[in-house]
Amino acid sequence: MSVTQSVQGKTAIVTGAGSGINLAFATLLLENGCNVLIADLALRPEAKVVVDKYSSRSGSARAVFQKTNVIDWKQLEEMFTVAEREFGEVDIVCPGAGVYEEHWSNFWRPPGAPESRDAPLGGRYALLDINLTHPIRVTQLAISHFLRHRKNNSGRKHIVHISSIAGQGKSMAAPIYVATKHGINGLVRSLDDLDDKFGIRVTAVAPGVIKTPLWLEHPEKLKMIREGKDEWVTAEEVGEVMLALVQQDEVSSIIGDKHRQGTLYRVQGGTILEVSKTVREVNAFNDPGPAGRAGNTVADSAVLINEIYDLLSQPNWGKAKL
Predict the structure, then answer these.
(1) pTM, whole model, 2 decimals?
(2) Domain containing 242: what range?
(3) Please, what's the largest Cα pairwise distance for the chain?
(4) Which of 123, 182, 242, 296 sits most deeply, having the most CB atoms within 10 A of its CB?
(5) Burial of 257 by CB count in 10 Å (0-12 exposed, 13-18 middle, 19+ buried)?
(6) Which residues partner with 159 through β-bridges?
């Protein structure tokens, strides 16, 4: 696909880029000449290698790490302050940090359960704050930044969200996670008119089952995957589609093969692209859903559901011990 708006010379902020999908996206941006502020609690070794490689001020693109807790709004504002100080105007924002129904913030292990870190009387779920409140707040901050710099006339601005195939359906194993991804889809679609009105394009990718530490380092999740039956989507495949969302006006359903052209999807405000082993647009109405496509299946999800039924059979489930 031809590039219609190169990221070379641009600046991006990517939260959660210390690992996984967001690191893959940040790496592709840097390789294509875009400065990146990586905002995360810490850098995994593979992310530190990337930051070290692109830390020089003499290179065509530069990476800066900003330690950031994405549920702290002051720290989110600081990301933009640091990015402006280091690079000037910001062009691309990805509020990508997220978690997947961890035991420490989990519908089936409610506040007061031994594994939960959500305070029984705290009035908050960490999973909601990370996966939904943080992207909403970063989107507001990005729009504010973009509007203040409109006079510079530096081209279209982009906000790229991380949704999921979970935003298209249901999951007994991960109800809060599913709710957050449905929320991301609704947010992205609701902001579609910003593209034509202000040149701010809000889009999202909706990956299937991704081979990242979020899965690989959690045995409680891996038990749902059946090797030989289920197929992983790689972080790099998702990152490639994210890069296409900010550089191209059309995206092919074929990932990674420059010599094949599949179905072409027009990119505009509100576009959500499912990334399984192929790419397709997720429609708001009458969408066929993600079921059955390679990269979207978890053959042994019943294992976790049976564990949930066991939890619900325990005396006083959900009653917080204050």
Answers:
(1) 0.94
(2) 11-312
(3) 63
(4) 242
(5) exposed
(6) 93, 202
